[in-house]
């Protein structure tokens, strides 16, 4: 039995389109601001924000692909393209975070002067743009949205830190080392959180039992159905971190109403985001 459901990918595509255009507009501001202020935190964000825009565009495209119906070549549909996007994006952003570290660490030992007032203005604009993106994504269900959300949330923290940093630098000329220090902190935050998202995405690709799926509870509910004797074979894996596929072989008493048994199994399975079920009765 196949339940047709792509609503979360459609919504994800709309959310990512909004965030893409927000980031594209902000890219111009960051590039100009980074060159004008000579701040390594902002210059690093030039690279960082370009990576944002590219990764969001990729996520948007792959979410559109994930909405396509199944075909002869992709009999389970295209939902896994969403997870593929999450893996690529996570790896890409982690690489960019290491580039930020490479830029920022040397400046700890040879800090340069920055335009603190210019940093303050750009930081306020950054907080506004990134907060709008976080608000749009915070209820997203797909791994793609979660990957981009973590990235955008990291950007909000970064711009808040740059805002505080710019205020400190306005009143304290002797603390230019704080600029690269902030960049290092944000880069480490991104590496940790995107690394976690990458790990979860790879688990889905390796067909690990979904974290939200309680196997013992599910089996006990199936075994409680009148006419079910035992579960002889059971497999479940996730298509995209949300919807799952299941195959189930059940030993039943054929003296009972077999169709009712199937209906109850379908009903229980739907509570666990199972959208494709193959049931064999023995």
Topology:
Blueprint: H1 7-37, H2 40-66, H3 80-109, H4 116-137, H5 143-171, H6 178-205, H7 215-223, E1 228-238, E2 244-252, H8 258-270, E3 274-281
Parallel strand pairs: 2-3
Antiparallel strand pairs: 1-2
Helix pairs in contact: 1-2, 1-4, 2-3, 2-5, 3-5, 3-6, 4-5, 5-6
In a nutshell, what does this entry contain?
This protein is mostly helical and 282 residues long. It has helices spanning 7-37, 40-66, 80-109, 116-137, 143-171, 178-205, 215-223, 258-270, and strands spanning 228-238, 244-252, 274-281. It has 8 helices and 3 strands; from the N terminus they run αααααααββαβ.
Please write the string of helix (H) and strand (E) elements: HHHHHHHEEHE
Q: pLDDT below 50 for ≥5 consecutive residues: which ranges?
A: 1-6
Spatial extent as radius of gyration: 24 Å
Within the largest sheet, what's the order of strands?
Answer: 1-2-3
How would the global form be characterised? elongated
Report strand %.
5-15%
Largest sheet: 3 strands, mixed
Look at the helices and sheets and give the structural class.
mainly alpha
Distance between the termini: 18 Å
| Strand elements, count | 3
| Percent helix | 55-70%
Total number of helices? 8
What is the mean pLDDT? 78
What can you tell me about this protein's structure?
The chain has 282 residues and is mainly α. The protein has eight helices and three strands. It has helices at residues 7-37, 40-66, 80-109, 116-137, 143-171, 178-205, 215-223, 258-270; strands at residues 228-238, 244-252, 274-281. The chain has a three-stranded mixed β-sheet, covered by helices on one side. A hairpin with a 5-residue loop joins strand 1 (228-238) and strand 2. The longest helix has 31 residues, at 7-37. The protein is elongated, with a radius of gyration of 24 Å. 41% of the residues are buried.
């Amino acid at each position: 039995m196949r339940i047709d459901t792509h609503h979360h990918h459609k919504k994800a595509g709309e959310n990512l389109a909004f965030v893409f255009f927000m980031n594209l507009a902000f890219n111009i501001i960051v590039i100009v601001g980074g060159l004008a202020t000579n701040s390594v935190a902002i210059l690093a964000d030039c690279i960082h924000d370009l990576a944002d825009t590219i990764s969001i565009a990729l996520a948007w495209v792959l979410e559109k692909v994930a909405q396509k119906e199944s075909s002869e070549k992709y009999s389970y549909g295209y939902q896994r393209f969403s997870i593929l996007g999450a893996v690529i994006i996570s790896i890409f952003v982690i690489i960019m975070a290491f580039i930020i570290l490479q830029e920022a660490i040397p400046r700890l030992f040879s800090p340069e002067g920055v335009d603190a007032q210019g940093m303050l203005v750009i930081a306020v604009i950054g907080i506004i743009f990134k907060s709008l993106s976080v608000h749009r994504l915070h209820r997203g269900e797909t791994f793609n949205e979660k990957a981009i959300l973590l990235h955008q949330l990291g950007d909000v923290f970064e711009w808040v830190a740059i805002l505080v940093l710019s205020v400190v630098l306005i009143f304290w000329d002797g603390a230019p080392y704080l600029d690269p220090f902030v960049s290092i902190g944000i880069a480490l935050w991104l590496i940790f959180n995107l690394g976690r998202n990458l790990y979860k995405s790879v688990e889905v690709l390796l067909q690990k039992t979904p974290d939200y799926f309680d196997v013992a509870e599910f089996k006990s509910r199936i075994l409680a159905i009148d006419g079910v004797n035992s579960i002889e074979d059971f497999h479940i894996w996730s298509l995209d971190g949300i919807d799952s596929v299941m195959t189930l072989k059940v030993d039943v008493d054929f003296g009972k109403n077999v169709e009712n048994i199937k209906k109850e199994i379908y009903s229980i399975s739907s509570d666990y985001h199972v959208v494709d079920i193959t049931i064999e009765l023995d």
